[in-house]
């Protein structure tokens, strides 16, 4: 069943539910919904409900029933990623959303090949947020991930001060045979806590940036014995997190 994230709160009266013009267009023209057909909505409180189309002009629905689903990760999860070339960041946002991420933080790093100016950054962030919304609907999430504005290493350190686990996916750790930190950090997580993973761009993370993060309670970890692409590493980490926090529980 098709799912949409809407503004407002689900209640017995549906007047508080607001559909965007784009959503109404998709329901009417693309999905060709007819009166009495049903679909799912998620409101601003992450409440899931089945609604029925009452009228096309003006567009109106009524709530049939609310549903109780548990599909979100039990810990708040953020990924901080270097700016990658082409559509790699689009792909990371889409797949990370499907895997349950709560926040995506683009990071300015010394080895970034791509640079975003202020105007470009705003448009890019808006586009990435739209990708996250579409991926959330497709994967039947209850919460929309937030794509933040671009941060520096310093602002990331300040922003994540209250996080319980902070990890840097570092290829040098993999080369040195490090195998413990990822498992140790994931096993230490408790429900409701926060974790952030930091991933470099195509050229990796500079040693000075790693050192600065380590001075602020970030720990380097390997993601297995192989060197992963910039767009693959976040998915590996999120899959490991899901296995530890959802499958093993």
Give an account of the 3D structure.
- This protein has about 250 residues and is α/β, with parallel strands linked by helices.
- It has two domains: about 5-65, Ribosomal Protein L25, Chain P (Beta Barrel), CATH 2.40.240; about 75-249, Alpha/beta knot, CATH 3.40.1280.10.
- The chain is built from eight helices and ten strands.
- A six-stranded parallel β-sheet has the order 7-6-5-9-8-10, with helices on both faces. It has a four-stranded mixed β-sheet with strand order 1-2-3-4.
- β5 (about 75-80), α2 (about 90-100) and β6 (about 105) form a beta-alpha-beta unit.
- α2 (about 90-100) runs parallel beside α3.
- The chain starts with a strand and ends with a helix.
- Pfam families: Methyltrans_RNA.
- It catalyses: uridine(1498) in 16S rRNA + S-adenosyl-L-methionine = N(3)-methyluridine(1498) in 16S rRNA + S-adenosyl-L-homocysteine + H(+).
- Keywords: Cytoplasm, Methyltransferase, rRNA processing, S-adenosyl-L-methionine, Transferase.
Brief write-up:
Belongs to the RNA methyltransferase RsmE family. By secondary structure, the chain is α/β, with parallel strands linked by helices. The protein has two domains: about 5-65, Beta Barrel (Ribosomal Protein L25, Chain P); about 75-249, SPOUT methyltransferase, trefoil knot domain (Alpha/beta knot).
SSE order, as H and E?
Answer: EHEEEEHEHEHEHHEHEH
The average pLDDT score comes to 93
- Strand line-up across the major sheet: 7-6-5-9-8-10
CATH topology of the largest domain: Alpha/beta knot
How many β-strands, per DSSP?
Answer: 10
Gyration radius, in Å: 20 Å
Number of helices: 8
Measured by DSSP, the beta-strand proportion falls in: 15-25%
Please give the domain count: 2
CATH homologous superfamily grouping of the largest domain: SPOUT methyltransferase, trefoil knot domain
Major sheet: 6 strands, parallel
CATH architecture name of the largest domain: 3-Layer(aba) Sandwich
Terminal CA distance: 28 Å
